[in-house]
Amino acid sequence: MISSLPPENLREIFEYLIVPENERKENLALQLYSCLLVNRTWCRNVVSVLWGRPFHLLRGGSSQLINVYISCFPREAQESIANFGINLSDILTGPLTFDYISMLREFNYELIYSCVLQWINAKGRIIINESDKNVDDEKLAFSITYEMCKQFFLKCGTLKCFKLSREMYPTISNHFLTIIDFPGAKNAFSKLEEFKLIVRDMDFDILPIMTKYCNTIKSFEIYSLPFLPSNEAGNIEVIRRLGSLSDFLSMQRRLKKLTLGIEIRDNFNQNEQTFRPIRLSPVISSLKNHLESLNSIKLQYIKDFFEVYVEDIVESVPNVQTLLFEGCILNKVSRRSLRSKFTRLRKFSFWKTAFTLDALSTIILNGNETLKEIQLYGRITDSCSDTEKRTRLLSIFSNCSKLEYLQLHTNWLDLGTSSEVLYELGESLPPSLFHLEFDLICNPTDLNALFERCSCMIKCLALGIGTATTTGIGIIDVNDANLAVIREYAKQKNSLKTLMLIGYYINASFQAIEDTMKFVKVIRRDSYRKSEYIWDL
Question: Which InterPro entries does the UniProt entry name for this protein (predicted)?
Answer without folding.
Answer: LRR_dom_sf (IPR032675)
